[in-house]
Structure prediction request, 746 residues.
Amino acid sequence: MFLESVFLWGLAAASVPVVIHMMQSPRARTIDFPCIRFLKACQKRATRRTRLKNIILMILRMLILALLSLGMAKPWREKEHTDVLPDAPVSMVIVLDNSYSMGYLDQGKSRFDRAREAANGLVGTLKPGDEVALLLCNEDVVHAVREFTTDRERIRAAMARAELSVLGTNLDPALREALRLANRAGTSAVKTEGADEEAVKKLLEADAEKEQRRRREIHVLTDLQAAGWDAVVKSNFLKTVDTKAAIYVTSFGRKGSANCFLESATVTAGGPEQCTVTAQVRAVGAGSPGNSVTLNVNGRNVAQETFAARPGAPASVPLVARLGAAGTYRCTLSLQDDALTLDDQYHFTVDVGESTKVLVVDGDPSAVGPISETFFLRNALNPGGLFAGEGSGAVDATIVGIGDLPAASLDDYRTVVLCNVPAVDGSDLVRLENFLRSGGSVWIFLGSKTNAQHTNAWSFLPISLRKPMGDATKEKSFGFGEQRGDHAIFKRKLDLRSARFFLCYGTGRATLKPRGAVLASFANGQPALIEAPFGKGRALLFTSTCDIEWSNFPLRRVFLPFVHQVLAYLSNQDVRTTAYRMGEVVKFQGPPSQYTARIVITDPEGRRVVLPQPQRRGGYAEVVFKNTTKPGMYQVNADPTFTNSGGFGVNLQVAESVVAMADSEKIRDAARSGLITFVDGPKRSIVEEIKKSREGQEFWPLLFKLALLVFIAESIFGNLISRAKRPGGARLPLFEVLRQRTPGVS
Prediction:
């Protein structure tokens, strides 16, 4: 199309050189001259050559005039192949991605800040009367300014107020809403408060020609997060959408961006008053650095571990924490800050139950403590009793002799430990069997007092005993061999290499009870730790002693965590971990009689929420909290008998933390041809790109340049011809003969 079409009349001037050429071409007179009859053929060829040169010169002059006329008419073409003119009114929809991955720091500035600067620049390209709308996009779409407005300062103020969210990205609803707005472009000039939609439609139809020329732009300012475009690519709605809008996607992300984040945490009971917190860490991107993770319990840092993360592979980082008595502990795992800080924390609570109650039966007691069978086991069960200020242990152990076993109430304990017991009376044996059937556990240590024949008669013994094996002189020893690393006892790694054994009981592997398993072996091939279920409970057999008669194991540091990990497994030590993701519902359940006041929750930002009265469900009072919209620790004021009364932690949905960029070609394939234009934000300015697109493709500078080149060519060509005609110029013999003898031949 032409912006100044009136100058197209100048194309008529291209006929002037033709007229001049016709007027300056006189007919040559015919003179018969016999002497030069042999030159007639040569004369004809020279005449044709001269005419050809004149025609070329005429065409060059015509081309100059035509190019000048076309250039002054200013030919122009819209790059998007539409009929929108450069001066057309603009309706712009800005979709500003404020998902938490936009908080990624590049060279000290977040991607969100860069996107906001670009949005301000786009607003600055608008002319008076142009309209703009602003949408904030994360998992939802939010109208920062409702509908279109021509007030640019209002839009700038809305962008200044915009903040990063803690949500992920989903561009599908944002694009649908932006297209809906773009298709209704122009309504800001005619729509008034309370106006009827039909009235607006009529006004727009009255100005149809103007609206036809309206330029509609949708600008998506994002980091091109792959997860955010999945729904767009799968739905393919951009292939069939009916719109005149052009979509510009400006990406502020960088391929291969490194990020390290916390996925989850698990807690297992360990030594006395100890838990092992295992942090699941994931690294993505090229060059993900090493990092350190810190465990904070009730506002105090208690453990820290460093690790090296391999991109794409989760890493398990164990941290050992010493907890106190029963209760709820508010815990936070924190990574050393990286480029994306919002996903560097994981919040959870640990509920520690009452101390594990254990009954220890000493089969070889002594008034002299160090030579008693259970001396080392007693100290391992309660090391705090040896040191002032350490407090009581997590295991509440009661030690009795074999003669006191009939008087002990087994229902008060979770585990019974039999240490080198020579025999158990029939009634006590029945009580132990019933204890196991009801869900209790029995741990058996052997020794010099053990009577293999009597012990083999125990129905709950995991495997049959033979005889002691090894070197009774203690000159030769053996250590531990293989352990089942996948078993709960060995979930927290134990270094058993320092333990040396002189004797152990041999067993018949063929006599292993059904569903029994060897959990650890000695280096001499004999089973060391054997487990077998019995009723609802389980029995565990250690084929050596718990004192130093047959080994140095009780003297090694590993003996203490070994004892506690076994007891935590056997006793089902009540250590529970609770953590929630954003958007999940938190339930508070408890006895109706204990509900005396409203439950009050304080969120991480200090806002207090009073929950409504609970409902009766299955004999419990239950009330739910749904507003888990912020990550962090939530404080709870409720009766301790209610679940989550000690508080709870809420964490991000970490799919957004995988900062992988979407494939722009797949997005183009999922859209109509030419609908989407991608701009690499870190390398190109979207403001400059949009200015160029609005200007369209201007042809007149090229036409003027071509006219200049043709003018130069015409001047050179005409000069060569005229110099051949002047004296002293370049002369050809044939031209001289024709000029002298044949007037009109030039």
